[in-house]
Design goal:
Elements: E1 8-12, E2 19-24, E3 30-35, H1 36-39, E4 62-66
Antiparallel strand pairs: 1-2, 2-3, 3-4
Length: 68
């Protein structure tokens, strides 16, 4: 992840009502939006205990955005 300040932010989407996390890489060339609500939904990301055991999230729970 990027360096301080503020390389991670979370908010509630006014459109879906979902909790969203935004993270930027160190070079500020890419941002990922993670739908935390979908990530914690067992029907979207099957889990037994730790949510991120598979190492990756499905495309329905994350989207990558190239930054200029």
């Amino acid at each position: 992840m990027g360096l301080d300040p503020h390389t991670l932010i979370a908010y509630q989407s006014p459109n879906s009502g979902h909790a969203i996390a935004l993270m930027v890489n160190e070079g500020a060339t890419q941002m990922v939006a993670v739908d935390l609500t979908k990530m914690l939904d067992g029907t979207t990301v099957p889990a037994s205990g730790h949510v991120c055991t598979s190492g990756t999230l499905p495309p329905t729970a994350e989207s990558f955005i190239a930054l200029p």
